[in-house]
Design brief:
This protein is α+β, with helices and mostly antiparallel strands and 302 residues long. The protein folds into 4 domains: 16-68, no CATH class; 73-122; 148-246, no CATH class; 250-301, Arc Repressor Mutant, subunit A, CATH 1.10.10.10. Helices cover 25% and strands 21% of the residues. It has helices at residues 24-31, 67-72, 117-122, 148-162, 186-192, 201-205, 237-248, 269-276, 280-288; strands spanning 16-21, 40-45, 51-55, 83-85, 91-98, 101-106, 112-115, 178-179, 209-212, 226-227, 233-236, 252-255, 261-265, 298-301. Strands 4-5-6-7 form a 4-stranded antiparallel beta sheet. The protein has a 3-stranded antiparallel beta sheet with strand order 1-2-3. Strands 13-12-14 form a 3-stranded antiparallel beta sheet. A hairpin with a 5-residue loop joins strand 4 (83-85) and strand 5 (91-98). The longest helix is centred in the middle third of the chain and has 15 residues, at 148-162. The termini are far apart.
Length: 302
């Protein structure tokens, strides 16, 4: 254990030589934010000859004034022209290194990024223009904290149109529904979201709204429908559920009390019950085969 009270003047290791105690100004500045006061020493680095100040506890631990780390940056990985690979497999080229800042260019998107050696060496750098959702959607240059709801909505648009493994893909991407080029970038979607018809900040963040693509494109074939600022609008979840329910309602044949075929309708069961003044449960039981008739009425799918 190193004793603080020892005079280390002229003490040497393989890497440094202690010259004397640091100036009083240095002692005050370095101890300002320390809980336990230290004595600082002026040392000479045997690797490069540079003089530097360090505390007693570090004298037998350090191996340089910091020049080892600096020299490490001089290797080929930081020379302009060097081609490297991130942990996610993205290739980049170093185009400049100055004042500990390394400038790189991603080869796939040509996006230029400034970073430091530690981040680059760890391979954790990311290209915001590299598609990260279904090979189509990318983040762009935007801040995502506290934007999880917007991101979930955006990601859902991309996935239902471009991810065949998603359950609802059959109703969207498989039928030709697409996302416009601008909205394939999350940053652009964030810029446009408040401009979408029907947007209300409070209702959106209270999860009271759904994004609809069909109302504005009601006369367009589904294989030509697209998610975009011009073709979408926000509607209440209640209205959207009613629309979806009507779309999903199978045709029901209505047979009268006299046994006559009346009509075929895609009207939801609850609406049909109201029109015929019959409780919904009776129609449902007949459709399930649990009952044959109710007051002479018969209902069949088809």
């Amino acid at each position: 254990m190193i004793l603080i009270g020892i005079d280390y003047t002229n003490f040497e290791t393989e890497y440094i030589k202690v010259l004397r105690k640091s100036d009083e100004k240095i002692q005050i500045e370095r101890n300002e934010n320390l809980k336990s006061k230290e004595i600082f020493w002026l040392c000479e680095c045997k690797r490069c000859g540079n003089n530097f100040d360090t505390c007693t506890q570090n004298i037998k631990k350090i191996k340089s004034c910091g020049c080892i780390k600096k020299n490490r940056l001089d290797n080929k990985k930081y020379i302009p022209g060097y081609i490297g690979t991130t942990k996610s497999g993205l290739k980049y080229e170093v185009i400049n290194y100055q004042d500990s800042i390394i400038t790189i260019k991603f080869l796939n998107t040509q996006y230029i990024l400034k970073t430091n050696s530690a981040t680059l060496a760890g391979g954790y750098i990311k290209d915001p223009y590299e598609p990260s959702v279904c090979g189509i959607g990318y983040l762009g240059e935007c801040n995502t904290p506290n934007r999880s709801q917007e991101y979930t909505l955006w990601k859902g648009l991309i996935e239902r149109c471009y991810n065949p493994k998603r359950r609802d893909y059959k109703n969207y991407g498989a039928k030709g529904v697409t996302v416009c080029d601008r909205w394939k970038c999350f940053a652009n979607f964030m810029e446009d979201i408040k401009k979408i018809d029907g947007y209300d900040d409070r209702k959106f963040h209270n999860k009271e709204l759904d994004l609809d693509k069909d109302i504005k494109q009601s006369n367009i074939p589904i294989n030509n429908k697209v998610y975009s600022l011009e073709t979408c609008q926000f509607i209440s979840k209640h209205i959207n559920r009613a629309i979806v329910t009507r779309k999903k309602s199978p045709n029901i044949k209505i047979i009268s009390q006299k046994g006559d075929y009346i009509l075929k309708t895609d009207c939801p069961v609850n609406e049909l019950a109201n029109k015929l003044n019959i409780k919904t449960q009776y129609i449902t039981r007949i459709l399930r085969g649990e009952a044959k008739t109710h007051n002479g009425w018969t209902f069949k799918y088809g």
